[in-house]
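Reviewer 2 asked us to include a model.

Predict the structure of this chain.
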Amino acid sequence: MSAAEVGADTYTAAVSYSGDVNNSPETGSGVVTISPFTMTSMQLNGATQGLVQQGDSLALTFNAPINENAFCNTWTGTGDQTLGGGFTVATFTDGVFPNDDTLTVSRSGAPGGCQTVNFGSIDLGSSNYVSGGNVTFSGSNPNATKIAWTASTNTLTITLGGQNSGPTSPGTTAPVSASRPSYTGPITDVLGDPIVPSPAYQGPNPKSQF
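Predicted model (structure tokens):
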């Protein structure tokens, strides 16, 4: 059986053999543990520390495949997937201390296909990623905001396209702090199990992020 066919728990697998003319009957058992669905890493990659700009990316890696069809209704199967076309919008909401900036991803105005994405939101762990108002990135091909699922590594990557709205200089240098980004949202594994929060998915300190 695949681990994707059973929920997170500890199971006992037992086998019995009735024997034949050459071998005696035998029984045996073993314990198998299926880990809960978690995000194992969150990596924010940017060319300039503290400045949110086109080409920056966010990579979310999970310990199991996500339910691709529940994330985007035109994603079927279990292979690699991509989504772009100028209708995907990444929004950085300007948090005012003590509230952190947040990142959400949505689909807006798509004439067909995947009209919504069930992404949720990222608390970026700091209020210094965007300043002076909310900033959106959508762009248009070939500079559209893109979402890609890489099945071999269970990684969902959002790459920012052209800036669509907000301050022309979105962001100030983010200080090193003890805060870490965290994810809240509806992404599930293929069985529909939600993410179990754990320190493993909260990502590196802001000094290594955009």
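The longest strand covers residues 9-17. The mean pLDDT is 83. We have added this to the supplementary material.
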